């Protein structure tokens, strides 16, 4: 089965859940102040992953800070 899908790694659901929980516990929490360097580092790292807009549990990781009026 793994040979049929080269480049893909399949993990049991329980292991994936453990990794997701560890990732979320290590994340930056709302209201936690960050330096400009750390903010830039986070944005650069998010640009390197496939789905940066959600955490492993499906919660949003990006918030819109302003509304753009195009009209």
UniProtKB/TrEMBL annotation:
GO molecular function, one term: ATP hydrolysis activity
GO cellular component terms attached to this protein's record: MutLalpha complex
Biological process, per Gene Ontology: mismatch repair
Cited InterPro entries: MutL/Mlh/Pms-like (IPR038973), MutL_C_dimsub (IPR042120), MutL_C_sf (IPR037198)
Cross-referenced PANTHER family: DNA MISMATCH REPAIR PROTEIN MLH, PMS, MUTL (PTHR10073), MISMATCH REPAIR ENDONUCLEASE PMS2 (PTHR10073:SF52)
This protein's name: Uncharacterized protein
Organism whose genome encodes this protein: Meloidogyne enterolobii
